[in-house]
What does this fold into?
Amino acid sequence: MATNDSADSSKDFCDEFYTEDTIAAFEKLNGHGYIGSQGKAMTEEMAPLLSPKEGDKILDVGSGIGGMAIHLAKVYGADVLGIDISTAVIKVGRMRAASADLGKGNVSFDVADAMQANISEGAYDFVILRSAFMHFPYDVKYPLLEKTFKWLKPGGRFLLNDMHSVIEHDDLALQNHMKNRHWFLLPMEKILQYLKDIGYEVVLLKDRGDDYVDAIGKEIADFEARKEELSKDAAVKNILEDTHSHWKWKMEWAKKKAFGEHYILAEKPNVQLAQPGLRKSREILQEAHRATSEPRDARRPRGRSRRACTASQRELEAAGKVIACARNGKSTSSARASFLHPPKSLRRKDKESRRWIFRFLFVTG
Ligand SMILES: C[S@@+](CC[C@H](N)C(=O)[O-])C[C@H]1O[C@@H](n2cnc3c(N)ncnc32)[C@H](O)[C@@H]1O
It folds into this structure.
């Protein structure tokens, strides 16, 4: 199935790719409630990272047929909304949710393209994007991540689980296969840069590396062991065969490190970082801390006293307090005062600390 890589192509691809038969076949392979690879196993690994409280609101973007959404409702009592661009997928998701015992939790589904979905800002404790980011063309990846940030409450967390590119191979067959599967993979550094630029703080990063190759190997072995039984259903036989050869292809290229798999947990800071100055100031502070955490002698210019270095460090700590106050929603005025008017003994003398301080004051206004 040839596809183009424009933002509008997702709907065409998903409508053609996710049919009643492919969904049935993928669910046979990936487990009840899952059309994505490593369905239940990855849910069991990642759900504890979220550990939502009862009633927490979760948005699952590209939810598929709802395996993870249902798990979070059933086990934690969360209130989950799954959105997916595919009508066929959502139809099955609704059936799976209706037949599940959700306990105190709740699951609902909407057919929606994440890029156009009408979702309230600041409404969710968690946003999940699992095995779906790869399907979003390059030109909408950053805007999509920005949307996830907007949908979260301050302090809310974003779970991203997907594949990423590792080594660029200019093999044409590889490029074509990825295109046919509507895969648009970014390198990990780019994903992290996007998250940082948007204002997320990365809390956890797991690059699954060799675990990923092992996981594909297990899926292939499991399929081969059950092949006869699974293939009795004529409607899915060809799809299973096709998926089997796709997995083998995936294994071969994962070993050559064309791509890998990761999950990232990132937090929307608990402060209105919409003020760009404050966000920028935090970056400057981090940079300053990095600079000052080098070995003292390495960073102390000739002729600069140890005392001046100490003063510089103390001033940075005061700047840190300003940010900490803002993060906790407290007034920053007293912390700013101690930053602006340090004790006489700590008055800045050296150029380096003056530079940081001017930058800090400039961006915090
Ligand atoms: C590989 S499946 C993963 C499903 C599920 N998250 C899982 O792990 O089982 C990718 C899903 O992303 C959905 N999807 C792709 N592009 C989308 C878009 N623009 N908006 C919403 N869903 C999208 C597809 O329809 C598909 O159900």
In short: The CA atoms of residues 220 and 245 lie 9 Å apart. The longest helix spans residues 209-230. The chain has two domains: 9-267, 276-364.
